[in-house]
Amino acid sequence: MTTVSRRGFATLVAGLLPLPLAAQEAYPARPVRLVVSYGAGGAVDTVARLVFARVAEGLGQPVVVENRAGAGGTIGANAVAQSKPDGYTLLDDASGFAINPALMPRLPYDARRDFLPVARIVTVPNVLLLGPACPATTVPELIALAKAKPGEITCASTGTGSSQHLALELFNRTAGTEIIHVPYRDTPAAQNDLRAGRIGMIVSTATSAIPLHRQEGLRVIAHTGQGAVARLPGVPAVAQTLPGYESLEWHGLFAPAGTPPAIAARLATALDEALKDPGLRERLAMLGASPGLLAADAFRSFVGEEIEKWGRLIQAAGIQAG
Asked: Which InterPro entries does the annotation name (predicted)?
């Protein structure tokens, strides 16, 4: 048998122990993969690419965007849920993340258990965009018209169970109206039917609606947030007529559960620094988006509240995925 000195034994044992934190690989040491759970060119993708180009500068590493669209965002989310929790595969998702658990009860992942909410990035209000078939110019006029003609006003959204559909359902239940939901597969088709008078209105993100405001008889009569929307001066919030009403589209960053808190904190700090950039803030404002950073526990609580809020509405209204 080989005899090992006390000093040699201590050296051997030390070599088997984990390296001190200072000696471990600094994060990030290589490019970060950002999975966007919606298609290229859409509102979520556009905001993600703007924000994370600036975040990459702060991190000192490229952030490579990968679009994994489909099934209401669940394909991309599932891919990230199954990834290694090392901070190099992240998820950029939106309000659908909190809607899907109630809309699709057989999800392949658990939205609460399988993800670490890193930070909410921006919020974008939905808007009520009316066309020539619906003559209302204010929310009180729309409510009065809908009550006078129950079931006759039609409203498009980007699909059953979408944030915009639920905004309409919340409006109906709060106002006591019966505006009929008409799901569309894509926004351009809905906008064409709105212009032609085949539908009365659309609940849309501000991002999609801003270019159409006051064009070809189209007009935004209200938004679903609380404060003013810079690109829609003079357009009031629905809450001014229906107190407490709110339906925000939001974008957030998630990591796989088990990701070290220090990495999540580093990412949240990089996002905070990026969102302070005046140039980025101006470009986001052009899209109707407002920086709405929430990190760590605050974002986790927000996501939980969103899951509960929309889950109750989906169950009460009997909404099922199309």
From this structure: BUG (IPR005064), Bug_dom1 (IPR042100)
pLDDT in tens, 70-114: 888 999 999 999 999 999 999 999 999 999 999 998 999 999 999
Pairing of strands 63-67, 32-36: parallel
The total number of residues written for the chain in this structure: 322
Domain identity same for 193 and 130: yes
Q: Give residue 81's pLDDT.
A: 98
pTM of the model: 0.88
CATH number for 181: 3.40.190.10
**CA atoms of 287 and 210, how far apart (whole Å):** 8
What does the pLDDT read at residue 24?
58
